[in-house]
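Q: Now give one record:
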Amino acid sequence: MAIAVSVTAQEKTVMHSKNSAISLVVQNNEAGNVQYSITYNGEPVILPSGTGFVFNKPSLRLDSFETIGIDSSANDETWEPVWGEVKSIRNSYKELTYAMADKKGSGIRVNLIFRVFDDGVGFRYEFPQQEKLGHFIIGDELTGFQLTADHTAFWIPGDYDSNEYLYNTTRLSAVDATKAAAKEPDIALKSLYGPDAVQTPLLLKTDKGIYINIHEAALVNYPVMQLNLDKAHLLLSSHLVPDAAGNKAYLQTPFKTPWRTIIVSNKATDLLASKMILNLNEPSVISDPSWIKPQKFIGMWWEMHVGKATWPKAGGKHGANTGNVMKYIDFAAANGFDGVLVEGWNEGWEDWFGNWKENVFDFVTPYPDYNIDSLSAYAKKKGVRLIMHHETSGSVTNYERHMDTAYRFMLEHGINTVKTGYVGRIIPRGEYHDGQWMVNHFQRVTDKTAHYKIMVDSHESVRPTGLHRTYPNWLASEAARGNEFNNAPALGLRPEHETILPFTRLMGGPMDYTPGYFHFQLNQFDSTRKTRIRTTLAKQLALFVTMYSPLQMAGDLPENYEQFPDAFQFIKDVPVDWDDTKILSAEPGDYVVIARKAKGRADWFAGAVTDENSRSVEFDFNFLDPGYNYQAIIYKDAENANWETNPAAYAIEKKTVTNKTKLSVKLAKGGGAAIALTRLASQGKRR
């Protein structure tokens, strides 16, 4: 359906979602400002909020519009991701397009496009090809999110360079980014831009129990949107990350901005199940993705974090030596892992951090004690692959000069996955990790690796916005505080961290969180270390299910896994690609319980994690196939388990269950539980 109408001042357009839960209102006020508002089941969620831009070139504030036409349409389709949490995804929405022209006389035209889903709203700006506007420079975006009350917020400080903060849970009125960041000495770069600034994805919860997630989708050729908070008016305003000159984006018509996304539900489980951000991204540009394979791997990296080895060769403890990596290859092959990540293999680590040089790494020169030819051949013989590590030390222009050579070098050695890193200040100087220049760099890496049929795991990168639908070779990102921070000397991680991340960072895409630690006091090789893993062992198993990623690294050392072979069995068994996902129960900051069905199999795996509080959770197995028995192997906290005093205490129990079974499991403080469910013969029969 399509309509074209003239709209007068104060006239408004209303669009309801197909299930009528979401209502969108778009209207012009008397000044010509186009505002939108959203209700959920009749309850206001976003009050009338502004739209528009500040242009630095041409010099113009574009926020007063004359509406020249309105179109509406609808869409309902189902598509299959290359990999993911479910086998197929339904994409059903109504679309509303406001065609507008600047009311102040410039003649510039812009379209405001809304998509209304059953679980939220996405909207973006489109600048069509036009005579009045060719090349232009964005000074800022004037999108607002006018909130209804002083909600509870799960937030991290607004920072142009880092998203590796712990989450804070406060009322909006208590947000203080500067104070929160001051407690985070483990973050080397702090590019804060104000005390009332936060990052997306931002989770809010109203006193009436409505969950609101604000983020963005399809971030391409545009800076990251962070948010300024006006506490007096409870207004969140878009804040785009600038470049060295203070400009936000350099654009050319035709152009579409990323989608601004608002996901809404009164059920935390439905929020986690949302696929709206993925649906707002374009279909895959890779016509034959058969070479893209989710994988589970181990890494020769934790040795450096705990003092067993070093990245640089100097000092006599170089970890990435031929003999040591061969041991990792043997361990991977013996235990069914797909690959081995090797860090510190290439020359340059002696002078890589803090000097901000252009040519620290060339990405093709191994240290003399690392024989990449023999190791590649050995890995191939053993049925596993090496995974390449490209740390750029922030020298991004240097990396771009070397990418073709580096990727050809990888393929020559049978390596088809790369972990990229961007620690430090970005070169060229003045650029930020989350600015337009770096967003475009990540896009260039994704395009280039796709050309060479290479998969990417990016660290210190922009947080995901669902682009893995369009570029499925971009399997995972870090883009949040991961498990490596357990070795940080100050705060490290808190037990609640893994119960917040699914509602925030993971809403945009998978995270390389590196779960699976079995040794908790990190002083094995340095008795002066006081750092530790802040979970139980059972929770580390559960994270393989609750922290979704198609690229999962078991983070601990092989010798630590060998001490607990029965618990390690779950890590060996759990898949990394899925046909279905059920969010069984959840509450941000408290607990998450998830079950997933293995790709192409009848078997399920479940995980539950809790915060610093002990609690009992229920696994309702009603998702299992009716008429079948399943063997459930339950890996759980022992009765005396506690993340602080007895983290390695666990118990393993076997039960026969059906789709009518409800199982209560007690989680220790900072604990969890993991369950492997294998389908047996039909009830009444034996396999």
Observations:
- The domain at 12-143+252-265 is CATH 2.70.98.10 (Beta-galactosidase; Chain A, domain 5).
- Residues 396-412 form the longest helix (17 residues).
- The CA atoms of residues 311 and 344 lie 4 Å apart.
- The first strand starts at residue 12 and ends at 16.
